[in-house]
Amino acid sequence: MSLPLEPPKSDEPISYNAIAQKEVFAKKKELEKELAELQAMSRIITNPEYYKSFSSQISDIEKNIKSQDIRLEKLKRHAAINKNVVEEEQDNKDNDENDELYVP
């Protein structure tokens, strides 16, 4: 019987072999850096057309960051589920071996 998984936290460390998680995390950090730069530039812009353009870009980047967060959460949840399945299979295998050894 398996217990329900608690959702993984986005600040949990990424496993060394979780390539997809690392790629998503790197993309998110890149987007956050770009967002900070655009926000800084939008504060000093005086032209309304440029401000509108920067605001649109900022909005798009914020949406992309949110989607990367969601993707990272899903990847971490999937990894946790796979880990639990492997552990349960190993436990079942160990129990089956023990049952065979102690047959009266």
TrEMBL record:
In this chain, the stretch annotated as Disordered covers: 83-104
Q: Does the keyword Coiled coil apply?
A: yes
Q: Where is the composition biased (Acidic residues)?
A: 87-104
Q: What domain of life is recorded for the organism?
A: Eukaryota
Listed A to Z, the keywords are: Coiled coil
Give coiled-coil spans as residue ranges. Answer: 21-78
> What is the protein named?
3862_t:CDS:1
Which organism's genome codes for this protein? Dentiscutata erythropus
Highest lineage ranks of the organism?
A: Eukaryota, Fungi, Fungi incertae sedis, Mucoromycota, Glomeromycotina
